[in-house]
Design brief:
single chain; about 280 residues; alpha/beta; Protocatechuate 4,5-dioxygenase, Chain B; 9 helices
Length: about 280
């Protein structure tokens, strides 16, 4: 490991987003993902081009995320681009970690450095902002799921702060152009929660509006709805970018596979509720 730059698992541990103990994490993933598909069984349904998954603590949104990740079993991708929102740092363009790997309790996830270096050539759009990685959970919490359902993939970690249509479309175009230059089979994962606020019934109603907008598979309209306050998604830019790339790659449908709220897991506090959605674009 000498000389390697490793992004630590800052969101794993007691009272954090997911367990830091490998055995506990393995058991939790087993519970959420269910049994493996029989050996040799071909995956059902069309090949996913992108997933949309939540990023709260596993206790709250893990089962919802797992509903989408199950669809990857038996499939192979050379790389996974995870696009996630920056909750704590603000910056233009996008931040990409230019180190070697991400640490998780299950081991290291190797960064696709060739892809990252290609992105960083456009220094008007992509940079590495160290402050964006100090506390951020939205990308990190996806990695144990990916490690469990896929093998031999490399990670392209992208954080977005500016969720405007102009910025998101530039990021999406750069991702797709780089995918085509480097070749290989690529999956996009967009990390986002939905409504944050009081009242479970209102949270679910707002989340249904977001789900319906996503299934229309029109990124400009989806981001316009966010801007107009019709619904919420803290990772709206991530969802928009994934939709744009998936559409350019031939996606014909966006299907919501699960829609829940934190209140369904912890029906005590109705004063602050978060909506969660998982979807597949194919």
């Amino acid at each position: 490991m000498a000389g390697k730059r490793i992004r630590p698992a800052v969101s794993a541990g007691e009272h954090k987003f997911y367990p830091s103990d490998r055995r506990r994490l393995d058991a939790l993933l087993d519970e959420m993902l269910g049994p493996d598909a029989p050996a040799g069984q071909a995956p059902e349904g069309p090949e996913p081009l992108a997933l949309v998954v939540p990023h709260a603590g596993y206790r709250f949104s893990g089962p919802t995320a797992a509903r989408a990740y199950r669809l990857l079993r038996g499939r192979r991708f050379d790389r996974v681009i995870v696009v996630a929102p920056s909750h704590y740092a603000r910056f233009a363009g996008a931040s990409v970690f230019d180190g070697d790997s991400f640490e998780t309790p299950l081991g290291l996830v190797e960064v696709d450095r060739a892809f990252v270096q290609e992105l960083l050539r456009d220094d008007s759009l992509f940079h590495f902002y160290p402050a964006a990685e100090e506390r951020e959970h939205s990308l990190e919490v996806q990695l144990p799921f990916l490690m469990r359902v896929l093998t031999d993939f490399r990670l392209v970690p992208v954080l977005i702060s500016d969720q405007s249509y102009d910025n998101v479309s530039r990021v999406a175009r750069a991702l797709r152009d780089t995918m085509h230059r480097l070749g290989g089979k690529t999956l996009l994962v967009a990390s986002s929660d939905l409504y944050h606020g009081p009242n479970h019934q209102y949270a679910m109603a707002q989340s249904r509006e977001a789900a319906a907008a996503l299934e229309r598979l029109n990124p400009e309209d989806f981001l316009d709805g966010i801007e107009a306050g019709e619904y919420q998604a803290c990772g709206a830019g991530a969802i928009g970018a994934a939709m744009m790339v998936a559409l350019a790659e031939g996606a014909r449908s966006a299907r919501v596979v699960d829609l829940t709220t934190s209140y369904e897991v912890y029906p005590v506090r109705d004063d602050y509720v978060v909506g969660y959605l998982s979807a597949v674009l194919s």
